[in-house]
Structures are given as structure tokens and as C-alpha cells.
Write a structure and sequence with these properties.
about 210 residues, mainly alpha
């Protein structure tokens, strides 16, 4: 019943893994799955224990992962999202779990991230904002999280920064001020934050010199 003893047993007798693939004890099945050939793993796709299916998600050939894309266990789905082909990955952008979607956002092709710009989770949107093409960041300029708008201010094309120079959060305005064309800075007479005002002043002074 000891996991360490089971592991030692299969290390010494890997050829016996198939015998225990249908064992009643989940841990023996899970450890046996580490030693089975990928072809034989396919017979275990319907295993009732999530730990066994996690091993399968890690070891199955990439083109056999579709069956586990919508597994009830989120760790299984996270592993699938981390391994499945990019062509299939987009099917997981609406997963119920934010960690699964975060994995999707980190791997999906930048040009295919549009469906995730309004994701309900802030960390997912933050990853999207860092990876989406700069010319598309205008779609996230009004995100309700200042943290996301800060990322937008860091990456958006500089000639699109004007709305962010008037953002309600000082840190967003500061980042925008550091990157905006000087012509935009001359029209910010209502700024009140000292750090932002200092940035504007230094940039205009440097230009004057």
C-alpha cells in the first residue's frame, strides 16, 4: 500500500506494469501508468481516479489528448492545455477554471487571443495584454482593472496613448507619460499627481535642451 514501495517495485519490474493497470487500488494503477507504453495507456482513459488520469494527460501522445480536454479534474485539463496542439488549444478558452484558461492564454497564438480579452479573471487578462499584438491593445484600453491598463500602457503603440494619459489611476498615467509623444504632454494641464507631473516636466525639459 506504500507509494514508495510500489514505485520501487515497478522500477525493478517495469514489465509487470500492465498486470497492475487494472488493479483495484488507485495508487498502484497510477504508478503502473508511468511505466506502460503510450499505446497501452489508451486503455486507461476511462479510469475513475483523477490521479491516474493526470498521469495519462502527461504521458499520452499529443494527438490522443482530446478525450481529456474536458475532464472533470482541473489538473488533468491544465496538463492537457500545456501539451495539446495549438490548433486544438483554442477549444479550451472558455474552460470554467481560471488556471486552465491562464495556461491557454500563455500558449495560444497571439493573433488568436481576441476571445480572451474580456476573460473574467484578471490574471488571464493580464497575460493576454502582454501577448496580444500591440495594434489590438486598444480593445483593452478600458479594462476595469488598473493593473491591466498599466500593461496596456506599456505595450500599446505610442500614438494611441492619449486616453491612458487621462486614466483615473495615476500609475497608468505615469506609464503613459513615459512613452507618449511629447506633443501629447502639452495638453495635460489638469494633472495633479506629483510623480506624473514630475515625469511630464522632465521630458519637456529634456526636449527643450
Amino acid at each position: 500500500m506504500s507509494g514508495r514501495q510500489i514505485e520501487r517495485f515497478f522500477k525493478r519490474n517495469p514489465d509487470l506494469a500492465e498486470v497492475y493497470a487494472g488493479d483495484k487500488f488507485w495508487e498502484r494503477r497510477a504508478i503502473a501508468a508511468r511505466y506502460l507504453s503510450q499505446q497501452k495507456l489508451l486503455r486507461m482513459l476511462d479510469d475513475p481516479d483523477e490521479v491516474v488520469r493526470r498521469v495519462l494527460a502527461y504521458r499520452l501522445p499529443v494527438d490522443e489528448l482530446e478525450t481529456l480536454m474536458f475532464d472533470e479534474d482541473r489538473e488533468v485539463r491544465i496538463t492537457v492545455a500545456d501539451r495539446i496542439s495549438l490548433d486544438e488549444l483554442e477549444r479550451m478558452v472558455t474552460d470554467d477554471d481560471y488556471l486552465v484558461r491562464h495556461t491557454v492564454a500563455k500558449r495560444l497564438k497571439p493573433g488568436r487571443l481576441f476571445r480572451m480579452i474580456t476573460d473574467p479573471d484578471r490574471e488571464v487578462r493580464k497575460t493576454v495584454a502582454k501577448r496580444i499584438p500591440p495594434e489590438s491593445l486598444g480593445l483593452m484600453i478600458n479594462d476595469n482593472a488598473a493593473e491591466i491598463r498599466s500593461v496596456v500602457a506599456e505595450h500599446i503603440n505610442s500614438d494611441e496613448l492619449l486616453p491612458l494619459l487621462r486614466d483615473k489611476h495615476w500609475r497608468v498615467r505615469l506609464i503613459a507619460c513615459e512613452r507618449a509623444p511629447l506633443s501629447m504632454l502639452y495638453h495635460l494641464g489638469q494633472e495633479t499627481d506629483e510623480d506624473v507631473l514630475s515625469c511630464i516636466s522632465k521630458r519637456l525639459e529634456n526636449e527643450a535642451e
